[in-house]
Amino acid sequence: MNRLLPILTVILAIGVIWYVAALGMNAQWQNDVYRRAGVENVPFTQFAMDAWNQEKPVLPLPHQVGREVWNSTMLVAPDKPRSLIFHAWVTFSATGLGFVFGSLLGIGLAVLIVHNEAMNRSLMPWIVASQTIPILALAPLIVVIGFNIFTGTLGIPTDPARLMSKAIISAYLSFFPVAVGMVKGLRSPEAIQLDLMHTYNATANQTFWKLRWPASVPYLFASLKVGVAASLVGAIVGELPTGAVAGLGARLLAGSYYSQTTQIWSALVVASILAALLVTAVGLVEKLVNRAMGARPA
Description:
Blueprint: H1 4-37, H2 44-51, H3 62-73, H4 84-115, H5 117-130, H6 135-153, H7 158-186, H8 191-199, H9 204-239, H10 248-257, H11 261-292
Helix pairs in contact: 1-2, 3-11, 4-5, 4-7, 4-9, 4-10, 4-11, 6-7, 7-9, 9-11, 10-11
């Protein structure tokens, strides 16, 4: 109960702020409705109920968002385009593929940087500089060029080509935290530990697998948790500028076209749930790996 009380207090405060904000933001439209209908002297309670139950509110209420999520997930077949599960699966596919590519790329770059001073001096500045480019400006170029290369030069069918194009954006965002985290992790062994491996006449390969790699595991999973969330953001961003008809990004875009704010918020909620599930999955893998390595539970 002592742990739940602060959480419930914060949730209650957010709920109160949300309802008050919705009342203010939806008030103008509700006043216009009353004015056109010639209704005057509306009691405050009636005004609040009407403002909180508009069909197209400026700021939808939590119960409206929850109802939309329920209707779009439980009352629609998951293989239908109206289902948020369908859109979440499309986004998850690009996220997973991009996350795998980005993680492998980040780990590979970190290994090169740690073991080669020339790579350290030449690659690290470019890795940092790559994240200074606004992803919203870069995403249309990568997606369109990638799609044309995959479908034209490589002859890949349209749907896999579209998936791989979005996965490039996910990989672009997820490789950076993994690379930076792994560089720090692989360099985390102290000099005395490296000297000890040297006295054992250990090869560079043995030093890597017996010392550097185990020492980098905590850094790796901390980076992967950041990377998987960034990968989801990349997949959603990759769906926005290409006119995609499937995916949570497409759902957000369709909602903005038709002023369906409830649809936008429901897609955001599902994206948040998906991000939480992905981070939790990485955390579970981390526990399994730690247990396999003999680490004591925290």
